[in-house]
Write a structure and sequence with these properties.
This protein has helices at residues 6-10, 49-54, 61-69, 73-81, 92-102, 107-121, 135-139, 155-167, 180-188, 195-205, 216-225, 238-251; strands at residues 19-20, 26-30, 33-37, 124-126, 129-130. The protein contains twelve helices and five strands. The protein has a three-stranded antiparallel beta sheet with strand order 1-2-3. Strands 4-5 form a two-stranded antiparallel sheet. By secondary structure, it is mainly alpha-helical. It binds a DNA duplex (13 and 12 nucleotides) through helix 6, helix 10 and helix 11.
Amino acid sequence: METVDLQQTLSCGQCFRWQPQADGSWWGVAGGRALRLRQEQAAGLAQDPFWRRYFDLDGDYPALRARLAALHPVLRQAIAQAPGLHLLRQDPWEALCSFLLSQNNNIPRIQGCVQRLCQAFGAPLGEGLYAFPAAQTLAQLEEADLAPLRCGYRARYLLDAARQVSSGGLDLHALRTAPVEQARAALRGVCGVGPKVADCVLLYGLHRLEAFPLDVWMKRVMAALFPKLRPADFGPAAGLAQQYLFVWARRHPAQLAL
DNA sequence: GTCCAGGTTTTTA
DNA sequence: TAAAAACATGGA
């Protein structure tokens, strides 16, 4: 089993709750558990069932990379620059909230909004770390209660999502196995969820690797490098290709100018 | 002051 | 139906 690369995996834009520390370690929370570790300890993650699944250590990344690298030279180069990247299996409710907050927003501010959300309404886990608040918790709040998050008009999107999830009207876990178009449509039923956010929840929260979030960066990539391809042309792991290309795009913005 | 940020909703022609 | 404007917030 290959070792996951923490830097490549935790700072590639798929999650917002992991922070690099001055001593080189990473601090984060998932599934109500706090974790602090350095890259040298990453191999040990396989010993813990929860973190083994979260970091997708059973995914066959060598095979996935080989198949994608064969598709296009730039994709091969993008993979070579992040060969230890894994797609995390995040909680779908957390992913839904995180990417609702991401729209028309920048990454540092998204991180801040998520952090304040957890600090205000999540269970304290010690050393300044907090669990992600449950849908049932947020569902009882009013828009004014979310003012401290400074997330602007997106606050009401969080509340709509919380009410649909806590009432059972939207069963996120059922979407793991539903036909992907059906799952996408169900997610679109939440106010503030458009095509891009829906695909982020599918990919990052439900591990539906065929989902291919088309944000402004990926639209530039597709226009500049793959004008004749559609997301589905990248195959069943298109979402992983998307992640390599997203990282590459942000590292090489000049090569996307049209 | 203006522009922009891993978009989406609302309004307008 | 399609294009444009509005949407909160804060840093550059």
